[in-house]
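Re: your question about Hydroxymethylglutaryl-CoA lyase

S., sorry for the slow reply, the queue was backed up all week. Below is exactly what I fed in.
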Amino acid sequence: MTNTTHAGTHVVEVGPRDGLQNERTALSVDTKVDFITRAVDAGMRRIEAVSFVNPKRVPQMAGAEEVMAALPRRDDVDYIGLVLNERGLERALAADVDEVNVVVVCSDEFSQRNQGCDVEEGLARWKRIAAESRAAGMFTTVTFAVSFGCPFSGEMPAERVIDLMARVAESGPDEIAIADTIGVGVPAQVRALHAGARRVAPDVALRWHFHNTRNTGYANALTAFDLGDCALDASIGGFGGCPFAPNATGNIATEDLNYALQRSGVDTGIDGAAIADAATWIGAQLDSPVPALFGRAGPFPS
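Result:
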């Protein structure tokens, strides 16, 4: 475990996890390792590589242990594993991930469909996982799913999300991630949730997860960037979605977000052309068109 201090605004590559979990094609372990290696070679330094969920429910995420065992390990690269419960954490620790990302859902109906429990049990699971993670010296993120709106319950009041953040902050997460799981959010919501997070968890690092379902993902990401240093999730090629959320399309694309950040003065360390090449490659593996735009237009100035 490297447990790097993640300073400044930076991009977290979630393509190998969120980018693949809703695709029809389930990739082999070797293909997943190749994908992640291409991301590392292009400059990605935090990568959500695997998900320790039940492969019967999400077959695209099968082989997490095998993927972790085959990945190139470097002191400057952190591999994140997504976990939903104590069994997932047990698997993640055994697989020697560098960080764990624990999901707490903000609505009961989505929580039941996604995790088989209500919000209160999700919070209790988080508390138990946080204690075990801390004992293991593990960098731990807690992600609040459907923070901007739920496909089943509708609007998600900011104060509800902020109250959940306050309760989770008591267990000392290293990072709080605020997720627009279905791509309904707008910048005004980003500002409200940011203000609330700074009020109830002022010393906890912030991470944001946006989908571009309604073409607001990049506006939301740049709003978050303007509000202060943060981590921004993105997926190579703009692939992604949630198996339990109807019509949830892809994450914001790594190469498109990287272009916007670099043009805004952020030294991301990411090679945009290499990311675009990786997007073309993974699109071919998935037999799916690449949603991202940067690879079509190229950099500016050229």
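The chain has one domain: 10-297. Strands lie at 10-13, 46-51, 78-83, 99-105, 139-145, 149-150, 154-155, 175-180, 205-210, 231-234.

Happy to talk it through on Thursday.
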